[in-house]
Amino acid sequence: MKISTKGDYAIQLMLDLACNNTGIPVSLKDIARRQHISDKYLEQIVAILNKASLVKSIRGARGGYMLYASPENYTVRQILETVEGSLAPADCVGANAAYCENRSMCVSVLIWEKLDQAIQDVLEGITLADLVDWQNNLMVDQYVI
Predict the structure, then answer these.
(1) In angstroms, what CA-CA distances link 97 with 80, 113, 115?
(2) Residue 10 contacts residue 83 (beta carbons within 8 Å)
(3) pLDDT tens-digit profile of 51-98?
(4) What are the start-end ranges of the H helices in 36-127?
(5) Which residues pair with 67 in a beta bridge?
(6) Which residues pair with 32 in a beta bridge?
(7) Which of 5, 70, 95, 119 is deepest in the core (most CB within 10 A)?
């Protein structure tokens, strides 16, 4: 399993929205500037997140994007699966596992099932609120007088 830049940027976008969760919509241009990501690429990602009801779009001169729910209600797994699809390490495991005629005699599938479960457990155990806390701790650690 390898997370693409789309998945990485989706996490950064959601984290930025969570860190700036003041009740005022955040413009994509501001997120792009802060995260050093192309606003055109972020438009593609936010469209996916909006369609999945993870973010909401606010139209108008003071429009932008906001989280649909509080940061505690989002897991990293949910965000990544929304933009990446399956995170399974092999085609023969996971929710959309492909049929394999050798599965009943394959030892490797046991490895992939254990790895898949470990990935799911880790990503499901980290919320967007956790990422905000981690980000804030990094900022405190970087503060120099």
Answers:
(1) 18, 11, 14
(2) yes
(3) 999 999 999 888 999 999 999 999 999 999 999 999 988 888 877 777
(4) 39-51, 76-84, 108-124
(5) 55
(6) none
(7) 119
